Each structure stands twice: as structure tokens, then as C-alpha cells.
Amino acid sequence: MKKTVLECEHCFTDFINQLNELRDLIHEGNSHGMNDAVRSKMITSFEKSHDAALETIASYFKTQGKAPFSGSRDITVEAFHADLIDDGQGWLDMIIHRIKYNPLYPGDYLGSLSENIVKKYLGFLEGFERNMEEKLDS
Prior knowledge:
The protein is mostly helical. The protein has 5 helices and no strands. The protein has helices at 2-32, 36-63, 72-81, 88-101, 110-137. Helix 3 runs antiparallel to helix 4 (88-101).
């Protein structure tokens, strides 16, 4: 069991590193202007942060003895019920927005996704950071 706890802590550390990179890019964009290059880097960093959060959640549930999940939506719903995330619907919307950003779908989502990252999604990830720290400390 100790090995899975260490894996969870390792995943969480990776998440924190990704989140700090995202914070730095948002700060850069706010300070120097949010051009398409910064937006693109920010979206890539956001996707890495979100993926790291999902990996951390999966690892945490593994330490709890829960079975693997079939996808990001299922794990998000379970994370909401376990108080790892504060806004379950907001996280589900975040997943849908990421899917729509995929180049396979028509539309220009660069601006709207980057705007939502700054206005909403960073706060969701920071809430997860806070909640996960509390779970790991207890």
C-alpha cells in the first residue's frame, strides 16, 4: 500500500509542477499581452495540468482500492463525490471544452478556451490542489 501512496504523491508533485507552469504562462499573458502564441502555450500547459490532475485522482482512488475508471468524465464525477473537486459540472464542462478544441471539430476555440482557462479553469485546478493537499496531509 505504501508504494501506491508514493505513486499518488509523485503524481500530485507532477500536477503541482504543471500547474505552476500554467500560472507562469497566465501571468506572462496578463503582463505582456495575450497573443496567439501565448494562448497556444497556455492551452498546452492547461491540458498537461488537467491530465496530471486526472492521473493524480486515479492514483488516489487506487490507494483507496477503487477500480480503474473508463474515462475522464467518470473519474471527474467520482472525484466530485469524494470532495476532491468543488465544481463537478464545471469540470465536466472543462472536459467538453477540451474536446471541442480538438482540430477535428470545426470552430475557433483558441480564444474561448484560453479565456476560460484564465477565468474559470485555473480556479478549478487550484481548488483541486487545495483539496488534494488536505487529503494527502490527513
